[in-house]
Every structure is written in structure tokens, then in C-alpha cells.
Design brief:
19 strands; Adenine-n6-DNA-methyltransferase TaqI, Chain A, domain 2; 4-stranded mixed β-sheet; alpha+beta; 16 helices; 2 domains
């Protein structure tokens, strides 16, 4: 519980609001800092395209989903805008987009979640340009003649900007903000040099993230071509029909699996094709696949602990820990520490969510800890590099169906190391695997660089504001 004394003058200034949002989130202190600046501030509405019309709430729509990219537009949820990988977004029908063009977002916009967990932000980068986005995300469209888009995002997402944005929150159960609640947010003008540098850093981060996505796409194309499965997979896509299937009793007796999804035709045909290749090996032969026991989480301040990531946080755009484990009071802490080059899998979740979608441990995760809800896949031999294992398992065409068919449970499906160890795995030549590994490694380190650039941009602004520029 947090307690804070609030002068009546604050209540008067914030429109006689009696909820805690304006007073507990450091918004008052942020405003005082901005008012004490030597430089001027401007309301957000004076810096957006068309005034307050440049702060867009797209409005509710009837969502019609499609599977064929020819008839759909990638659709970002309020969670997706904070994800690094946008390749597996749902497709909303083009008809729904035409009925509400405000759904479309463009590069250089600041995206702010407006419902539920309010105030999470992302910068719309080039690979998001033209995608559709949920009405639960506000679009802040900068007037580029008045303010640089990267600088605006850097301030709004800084430790001064976020409290100002979230102070307008309303609602007791499901919280919201609307354009009018943030239109008066004061934006400090800190000089052309600082604003240009922060904008450059944000743009550099956006470019790095786009290049990372390109590298992963290149790795996937190279993988499918080298495995010589691209023709087979195309034939499989064209022949697929949503029909029933027959499973022999002898097969059930052999596998001891009764879940219908385990026998889905696509995954079965892929597994049969791979196992027919003499070079195939079970995943457990080339990597240690294991989980760790549950443990008591004892959290401490950031400077005194080990960065801790939940399974969901591993998928975030920025690998920045929000909690830290005690080094001295966490029993068997070494069991939960990660090393660079491991492949990680969320062991529970929803089909279509994070379940069955691997992550690669980059330098940002090296030495950090993660949950017992994360399965570790550690290469046994240097001949098969971790980046290749990641590319193979993260393939939407191969790895995903092979991994998810092993899941158990209905309400909250789960993956198990003993089942994953039997997943068929195809190695390639040393040169091909090293090339794919290098692409994966470069991609994830580009994301680390992007996070550092954004942090540097915010630090420039926060330092200037703290010094009262």
C-alpha cells in the first residue's frame, strides 16, 4: 500500500478529481519540474497534425478475421505493439479496414495503450507502416514541421512523460484514457541540438529493429531452401482441407496420446517427411532440453539483484527486467541463470500466443534469470549452433507445428521436455548452419542495440530536465 498526503491546491488544479491517478504516479512532480524550466513548453495538441485531431482514437469496429494475406491486413493488438516479432500477427479483413481507415498506422507515430494497462508506448517503425492497429491504442501523429517524431516519442516514454500521460486515466475496473485527457500534456522544448540527437537515436533504434526482422526472414528463407522442404510445404498448403481424420488404434497404443491435436494432419505429415530423411535426429540428441523446479521469488531493488524475466517478458520489444531476484536469499539461484546462445520456450500459454514460439538468449539475457515456466534448450555440441536450432524451431512452417503437437492440457496447454526431446530435427552442412546462426545472432544483437539507443535518447531528455535546462 502506498500513502501520500495531497494538498487541496493539487485537487483544485486537477479538476477536483478524487481518484488517485493524478497524484500517485509522479505526474504532479513532473509538472512542477516542467514549470520550473528555463525553456518553454507547449501543449501536445499544438504539436500534433491537425491539433487534437492528431491524437487519434480509432473507434470500435466489427472484427472480421481472414487467413489469406491477399484479403487481410496485419492487425496489431495492444500487446503486439510491444512485441519484437510481428510476423505472426492476425489478419483483419481488408473490408473492415476500408470501413474504418483510422485503423491504419504509419511510421513515426507514437502508439500509447489506452485501455487496461494504460501508458505503454511504442514507436511506429517502418515495418509497421500500413498495418492496422486496435482501437485500444491511441495514435499520436506529430506535426513534423513543429516537432521531430523521435523526440516526441522519447519524451512521452520518459520517466517524466509517462506519469503525465497516465495521470489522465479514468475508470475503476478497466482504466482508459482518451485524446482529450492527454492533449494538454506539456512538451518541453529543449533546443534543436538535443531534440535532433534524441530523434536520431530513436530513428536508429527503429532502423535496427527493422533490420533485425529482415535478418530473421533471411534466415527462414535460407533454412527452407537448404532443407529442400519448400516445395513439399507449398504442396501441403494447397492440399490442406478442414476435414476429419482417422487414427488407428495401433498408433494410439504406440504413442499413448489421446489428444486430437497431436494427430493433426499437417504436423503428422511434416514429422513423417522429416523422419524419412536418414540424417534426422531427435532434438534431445543434439541439445539438452530441460526445465527447472519452481522456486520462491524474493525481489530486491535493481542495484542489489539479478534481472528476472517472466516467460511473457522474453517476447517484449525491449529486454528490460522489471524485477530483480535476491542474490543471497534465492535458493539455488544458479539453476535459473541464463547464458547467451540458449534457446528458450515458454512451457505454458495459449495456442496462437507465446506457446511453442522460441526465443534466443542474446547478450541482454546473459547472466539474467528467468522463470521455471521457461524450458531451456542448450546445444550439446558446437557443430550445431544455437542460432540454427532457434531458426529451425521458430519456423512457422516446420518448428511450430512440430512443437505444438506435443502440448498437453486444454484450458492452459503446456509443453514438456520429455515430449520435446523426441521432436525430429534436421541438421544441414556446417557452412549452411553457421550462416543461419550468424543471421539469428546478428538479429537479436540488433534488438539489444535498439533498446540501448532508445534508452540513450530518453536519458538525454531526463538529464536535461533534471538540470532545469
Amino acid at each position: 500500500m502506498r500513502l501520500k498526503e495531497v494538498p487541496f491546491t493539487w485537487i483544485q488544479r486537477w479538476g477536483m478529481r478524487l481518484d488517485t491517478a493524478p497524484y500517485m504516479g509522479d505526474a504532479v512532480e513532473a509538472r512542477f519540474v516542467l514549470e520550473s524550466l528555463k525553456s518553454k513548453t507547449q501543449p501536445l495538441r499544438e504539436l500534433t497534425a491537425g491539433g487534437i485531431a492528431g491524437i487519434v482514437h480509432a473507434g470500435r469496429i466489427k472484427r472480421q478475421w481472414v487467413e489469406d494475406p491477399r484479403y487481410g491486413t496485419p492487425f496489431l493488438s495492444s500487446t503486439d505493439i510491444l512485441r519484437a516479432d510481428l510476423t505472426q500477427c492476425s489478419l483483419i479483413s481488408n473490408r473492415a479496414v476500408r470501413s474504418n481507415p483510422l485503423l491504419i498506422i504509419h511510421k513515426g507515430w507514437t502508439l500509447i495503450t489506452r485501455a487496461g494497462t494504460v501508458g505503454r508506448m511504442a514507436y511506429s517503425r517502418p515495418d509497421m507502416d500500413g498495418m492496422a492497429c486496435t482501437e485500444d491504442v491511441l495514435r499520436v501523429i506529430p506535426d513534423k514541421a513543429r516537432i521531430l517524431p523521435g523526440y516526441l516519442f522519447a519524451f512521452l516514454s520518459s520517466r517524466f512523460g509517462v506519469p503525465l500521460v497516465t495521470s489522465g486515466t479514468y475508470g475503476a475496473i478497466i482504466q482508459h484514457i482518451e485524446p482529450e485527457h492527454i492533449s494538454d500534456t506539456p512538451i518541453p522544448r529543449l533546443g534543436d541540438e538535443l531534440e535532433s540527437e534524441s530523434h536520431r537515436l530513436i530513428e536508429e533504434a527503429a532502423s535496427a529493429r527493422c533490420l533485425a526482422s529482415t535478418r530473421l526472414e533471411q534466415a527462414q528463407r535460407l533454412l527452407l531452401r537448404a532443407l529442400k522442404l519448400d516445395v513439399f510445404l507449398e504442396e501441403l498448403r494447397q492440399s490442406e482441407e478442414d476435414v476429419g481424420q482417422v487414427v488407428l488404434a495401433s498408433e494410439i497404443a504406440e504413442t499413448m496420446r489421446l489428444e486430437g491435436y497431436y494427430y493433426n494432419p499437417r504436423a503428422r505429415r511434416i514429422a513423417e517427411r522429416i523422419r524419412a530423411r536418414p540424417e534426422h535426429r531427435p532434438l534431445g540428441n543434439i541439445a539438452d532440453v530441460y526445465d527447472v523446479p519452481p522456486f520462491k521469488h524474493i525481489y530486491v531493488e535493481s542495484g542489489n539483484g539479478v534481472p528476472f524475466f517472466t516467460s511473457g517478458e522474453l517476447f517484449n520489444l525491449d529486454r528490460r527486467a522489471s524485477k530483480f531476484l535476491s542474490r543471497t536469499r534465492t535458493k539455488n539461484l544458479h539453476l535459473y541463470i541464463l547464458e547467451r546462445g540458449w534457446v528458450l520456450l515458454a512451457r505454458s500459454g495459449q495456442l496462437g500466443g507465446i506457446l511453442g514460439k522460441p526465443q534466443y538468449a542474446d547478450s541482454a539475457l546473459n547472466g539474467a534469470a528467468t522463470s521455471d515456466h521457461v524450458i531451456r534448450i542448450v546445444p550439446k555440441e558446437k557443430a550445431i549452433p544455437a542460432g540454427y536450432i532457434y531458426a529451425y524451431l521458430s519456423s512457422r512452417e516446420i518448428g511450430y507445428p512440430l512443437l505444438t503437437r506435443t502440448m498437453t492440457g486444454h484450458s492452459i496447454p503446456a509443453l514438456w521436455p520429455s515430449q520435446l526431446a523426441s521432436v525430429p530435427f534436421l541438421p544441414l552442412s556446417d557452412g549452411e548452419m553457421k550462416k543461419i546462426h550468424s543471421l539469428v545472432e546478428e538479429a537479436f544483437e540488433l534488438r539489444v542495440t535498439a533498446t540501448a539507443c532508445e534508452d540513450d535518447a530518453r536519458a538525454l531528455i531526463e538529464r536535461a530536465l533534471s538540470e532545469g535546462v
